[in-house]
Amino acid sequence: MSFLEYQLKTVPTGLRKVLYLNWPLVVLVCAVSAVGFLILYSIAGGNLSVWAEPQMKRFAAGLLIMFAIALVPIWFWRNMAGLAYGVSILLLLAVEFFGVVGMGAQRWLDIGPLRLQPSELAKVTMVMMLAAYYDWLDLKKTSHPLWVLIPVLMIVLPTFLVVIQPNLGTSLMLLMGGAAVMFAAGVSIWYFVAVGALVVGAVFAVFTTRGTPWQFLHDYQYRRIDTFLDPSADPLGAGYNIMQAKIALGSGGWGGKGFMQGTQSRLNFLPEKHTDFIFTTLGEEFGFVGAFSLLLLYGLILFFCFTSALQNKDRFSQLLIIGLAANFFFYLAVNLSMVMGMAPVVGVPLPFLSYGGSVMLVLLVAFGLIQSAHVHRPR
Amino acid sequence: MRRTARETEESARRVNRRSLLMGGAMVAMFAVLGARMRYLSVEQADEFRLLAEENRINMRLIPPERGLIFDRNGKLIAGNEQNYRVTITREDAGDVEAVLARLTRLIPVTAEEMERILRDIDRNSPFVPIVVADRLPWEDFSKVAMNAPTLPGVTPEVGLSRHYPLVEDFSHVVGYVGPVSEKDLEERPNPDPVLRIPEFQIGKIGVERWMEETLRGSAGNKRIEVNHVGRVMRELERTDGTPGQDIQLTLDADVQNFVQARLGEESASCVVMDVNTGELIACASSPGFDPNLFVRGISQRDYSALMEDDHRPLANKTVQGAYPPGSTFKMVTALAALEAGLITPDTTHYCPGHIEFGDRRFHCWKRGGHGTVNLASSLAESCDVYYYEIAQQVGIDKIAEMGKRLGLGIRHDLPMSAITEGIMPNRAWKQERWGQDWRIGDTINASIGQGYVLASPLQLAVMTARIATGRAISPRILRAIGGQPVDMPQAEPLGLDPAGLRAIRDGMFEVMNTQAGTAFSSRIADETMVFAGKTGTSQVRNITAAERARGVVSNDDLPWNRRDHALYVGYAPFDNPRYAVSVVVEHGGGGSAVAAPVARDAILRVLHGDIPPLTAYPANQRGRIETDLNALRDRLRNTGPTGNSRA
């Protein structure tokens, strides 16, 4: 594979590339992040330095990285796909042995000042790997069982390493992200139907083995599912998070209680209010209008991703954009379902809003790749 | 892989088709999320808003300051004393054990208490202050306050707690406060939420209990915002409560103290009452107890000692003691006969020492008999036979009716605990109570206040006041509430024949002021304070015919609880009655020897407004009385100047 297949003449060069960035997307990403800073500022009780400032610094650094990635030709990144994937797998293995235990799970590596979650990185590198694979694969072989098995293994390997951390949320995200690329690449719909049927069977198995020595999930994961099914049964125990999140969202009403007026978050009734449950504060302080506006911003981001993908004729670029956009969508869909009490509590952050370094960084890397694909698209 | 243009087109076409499918699915998901958001924050908003408010807002009650209780001269009977205590807050203390160790060098803390403190600290959130020591003396408290810089997290606090400076003098009338029990809450259909404040105290007996609502006032409250662990973040709103109202009693603390001391160690009681207003001036029951013990939480040992004492210090004998009134009841029988027109003051009967009725013989206290007696001499010498005779003519129902008119057998409503109704028996009563017919023998017994008749010292004082004034005087103990005088309706006339009343009063005069009178030795020499009254000695046992034949065993030879009760009722001055007095000394022996002198000292004390001068006493008794009064003076409380006046 070489860059020759791209029609170089039409690709902008040098700093002129900057003009060809997908600027609406850049603006939208900044806008959503700004909403995040605002809420982090509010949750800290009007204190910038607690969460908002570190988050802004990370965002600024991430934005530079995003631009840097965007200016590097997409074919370079395609050629790097295998390496990136391999490094991610090594990091996932490393986290297994040297990782820091937090909340009963090994999830991050401390590398100097950087606290890295390799599982977040894997989401991006796996999509790159799959896109590159399908770019390489003969179109006719796309649905051939053997050539389907290979990408499935590519997905299963990092997923397995994440699930034993254990991190159920991220492993599900990896599965869905991988599936999205395979779906976009044109793998026969029947494979997905079959897997769907298998999942239903597996869920059945998970629940029937509960309480036996060979149960599939940890006790706390089972409890989270129980809690999700009936949060009000134990409002002070495991259901507390969901109940309080719903109270915060619901009490916001149409227009919200006003900036910095959210009693639920200010008085600490909200769990994880600056990370996974940050949306509840938005809902409490800015109401339905605020929450819906955020949804709209997310929708626009996805819209610009999809239109960019549709404009692109390069198979790797298309699949990469779709895969990363789908990942982005899964983040927010799972997180919002969770805080609104429609899904069990799994640790999935809200993209660009939740406080956290790795996620912010990885998201901006992903958007850098999307921008690179956009800038260097064949014209 | 290098692709042909056609292949590239095909790839893009496929990817685009699948992308649109995915995009469609995402739009659907967005719709679901939006709908859910709308459901939560628009449709269910009210419910969740309520839940959010419930989360954050707590009501805290501010306990009201309890009203004070004063005597009629403004002397403090029940007050609120500053209570010094020390608390520790874990989160401010840092190293709790080290701070407590330093603290115990300043104030004594028992090992038991220490265990409780550590347990409480462990159980509560770190910001909750835990009481280390309560009711500290000022010296210890100030030591802690001075060392505050070296004791992080330790707070010296000042609270209020009930205090009874006159100790046992008003233990029965005023009672005491104590912690709210489960029973207290159950008794009230809709208990004031302030009762649920830990450490809040309410009246348990006496005025403290019966005037509880007045004294308590109403709690203020503050709405406070709390966070998820209950820490108070800020006060949103504060409504101050109203402190309880002060109560002024009709009692005179100095007279009460004098009477209490005069009763001494006897199991006895004395009521002094203003005959014109019904105001109780003294209402003393002996022995008393220290109500402050109950406020602090009485120890099991102290409590057992009070319970096991055969002189029953916890009982308020003035209102709850029901005694056979004995000869003090004779005025009732006589008035019933006079009112029925069956006798005149000049009616005489012959007393041979006993009468025969059927196969029973009813004795007069004087074995040889009194000979011929009229109404006045029958009272003066307390001839029983005279009353046996007239009672048979009047019948029990008329006697009982007169008893009730004079205030016996009815409950006088006062804010005190366990007020007895006594018993004023008649035919219907016996039928109902015992299922038996009334017999003449019952009437004969009742005529001299024995048998079924029971009366409390309060009732006897009311009876005396009614005889002295001819009006339906009712006892009262409340003089003012919250500075407003309690209105005092003029007592209605009883509607008794004045001539008959005068005859009774003359008889009571003769009891005290004629040589033959049973209480002649307790007369008052001061002519402006002439004393009239009636003695009574009531048996608490049957004297068998055999014992009578051998000679009745004298009280001194009987065990204490088999001896006769000594009673006395009287009023003074005779020509212009001001005060009535009743005295009951349980198992004291004879009324004239034991009860009448107490009554005389009490009434002289109130008439003089101070310890009576010797000139008030008959000349031949002054030597002895001087010694007695001096001994008594040493037992009196030096209550200091009056006028702690908030009343």
UniProtKB/TrEMBL annotation, chain A:
Keywords: Cell inner membrane, Cell membrane, Cell shape, Cell wall biogenesis/degradation, Glycosyltransferase, Membrane, Peptidoglycan synthesis, Transferase, Transmembrane, Transmembrane helix. It is an enzyme of class 2 (transferase). Pfam families: FTSW_RODA_SPOVE. Its EC number is 2.4.99.28. It catalyses: [GlcNAc-(1->4)-Mur2Ac(oyl-L-Ala-gamma-D-Glu-L-Lys-D-Ala-D-Ala)](n)-di-trans,octa-cis-undecaprenyl diphosphate + beta-D-GlcNAc-(1->4)-Mur2Ac(oyl-L-Ala-gamma-D-Glu-L-Lys-D-Ala-D-Ala)-di-trans,octa-cis-undecaprenyl diphosphate = [GlcNAc-(1->4)-Mur2Ac(oyl-L-Ala-gamma-D-Glu-L-Lys-D-Ala-D-Ala)](n+1)-di-trans,octa-cis-undecaprenyl diphosphate + di-trans,octa-cis-undecaprenyl diphosphate + H(+). It is found in: Cell inner membrane; Membrane. This is Peptidoglycan glycosyltransferase MrdB. It comes from Paragemmobacter ruber.
Automatic annotation (TrEMBL), chain B:
It comes from the Bacteria. Residues 269-602 form the Penicillin-binding protein transpeptidase domain. The chain crosses the membrane at residues 20-39. Its EC number is 3.4.16.4. GO terms for molecular function: serine-type D-Ala-D-Ala carboxypeptidase activity. InterPro entries: Beta-lactam/transpept, Beta-lactam/transpept-like, PBP_dimer, PBP_dimer_sf, PCN-bd_Tpept, Penicillin-binding_protein_2. Gene3D superfamilies: DD-peptidase/beta-lactamase superfamily, Penicillin-binding protein 2a (Domain 2), Penicillin-binding protein 2a, domain 3. Residues 62-236 form the Penicillin-binding protein dimerisation domain. It is a single-pass membrane protein. Keywords: Carboxypeptidase, Cell inner membrane, Cell membrane, Cell shape, Cell wall biogenesis/degradation, Hydrolase, Membrane, Peptidoglycan synthesis, Protease, Transmembrane, Transmembrane helix. It is found in: Cell membrane; Membrane. PANTHER family: PEPTIDOGLYCAN D,D-TRANSPEPTIDASE, PEPTIDOGLYCAN D,D-TRANSPEPTIDASE MRDA. This is Penicillin-binding protein 2.
